[in-house]
Amino acid sequence: MMRVRFCLSFLVLGVLGVSIGAVAQEDGDTGREETSLVRQVPTASSEVLLSYAPVVKEVAPAVVNIYTARKVAARQSVFSDSFFRRFMGDNFSFGAPRERVQRSLGSGVIVRADGVVVTNNHVIGEADTIKVVLADRREYDAEVILADARTDLAILRIDAGEEDLPVARLAQIDQMEVGDIVLAIGNPFGIGQTVTSGIVSATARTQVGVSDFGFFLQTDAAVNPGNSGGALVALTGDLVGINTAIFSRTGDTSGIGFAIPASMVRSVLRAALDEGEIIRPWLGIAGQPVTSDIARAVGLDRPGGVMISDLYAGGPAALSGLEPGDVILGIDGEDVVDERGLRFRTATREAGDHVQLLILRDGERSVWDVELALLPEVPERQITRLDGRHPFQGITVGNLSPRFAEELGVDPMRSGVVTLEVSRRSPAGRFGFVRPGDIILNVQNELVASVDDLLAITERPWENWVYRVRRPGRLLDCAVAKNGAVECRVSG
């Protein structure tokens, strides 16, 4: 089974002092041109001494190794022996819990001379200690400025005193094309800094599933475990991406690696250093990909784009006059293939920026100017722990707003009351009435639009309880019996 694992060859003609050229000749019998090779002895050292060394010397000092450690509780007993685990299972143990230390390694890139380092969020995880080792073997303890699981990026800071550290120059815009040569620099398998070369195999990969804002550069670089968080560099010396994952059946490189583009790195870096938190702008739409059937219905010759299915009232798209049924084909001159790509393009911009959307409406194409805005926080969260004698006793809930939903990884167009925590000792925890992430839609057949609605309903005495929740991927209608048993069925 193919697994996603977090984590080039360029042939220079002129080997052994022989230069190979191509000459086109016309075949008299067929009238076609044929190409033959002409071998020539090189006349200058520059013809055989082609090298990536200047780029590596410029960027490599800014690529660091990252070592993390985390203490976890573990039970030790004689049954931890592999012989007993074969019969008892991995989870069988007794005795006092003892601490053990989990260690991991990865890579990072210094992007500011005062010690700001970019890496992957999965590299640091929930580490208790983070150590950054420079290419010249100097070691520093690092603090986390910001960690964003949704983009799989983390921003660290190290203190090198008054000294300016070497930095990698972030590419200003994402302009890599398929076939461009790139270098991957990192610390694979912890063996030390390693450089590999290759090409950009694809751009704008969105169906990878590594992060919520998946939009990756694909490369055939030899990216392996330990390369995660390292640099993907163009031959200009610009940092064009942060290596983050590979496709592999074994965990080793198979020539398919993915890097987070520089524009997303810049966006997260800006949030970490300026705002301190990530609040992404949005268009305020819900959409669906344009399939072959939809493409034929709207007059397109091929699938592609995002059809607007819903608009947030007062959101940027609604204020600009867009309507359900409009198809977004492009943004700022870039094609839009699916909703992930559209979200990436807007997430890397700032509130107040204007974007140009290419819209298809009634068979006609036109360009619409839309001013991006921050996701609103209306209504207020009103995070509340529920008490009393009812099935929801012991759960913590809050009002969904577009901004709060975005933080939780929920569709920002959702509204209602979301379950945030469930006490294990509560009836809800013991019997599974609700789970964290459930959106409570109605109780006792009464609409629950806010926490206040839920409080009012649960304050009244009820003989039996019925309710509806939205659980990821489905709607459930549930009923609670007097003995505490709960029965749920998927709602149509």
UniProtKB/TrEMBL annotation:
Residues 1-24 form the signal peptide. PROSITE patterns: PDZ. One of its GO terms (biological process) is proteolysis. Gene3D superfamilies: 2.30.42.10, 2.40.10.120. InterPro entries: PDZ, PDZ_sf, Pept_S1C_Do, Peptidase_S1_PA, Peptidase_S1C. It comes from the Bacteria. The keyword Protease applies. GO terms for molecular function: serine-type endopeptidase activity. Substrate binds at residues 122, 152, 226-228, 283-287. Keywords: Hydrolase, Protease, Repeat, Serine protease, Signal. The keyword ATP-binding does not apply. Residues 298-363 form the PDZ domain. The active site is at residues 122, 152, 228. Belongs to the peptidase S1C family. This is Serine protease. It comes from Iodidimonas gelatinilytica.
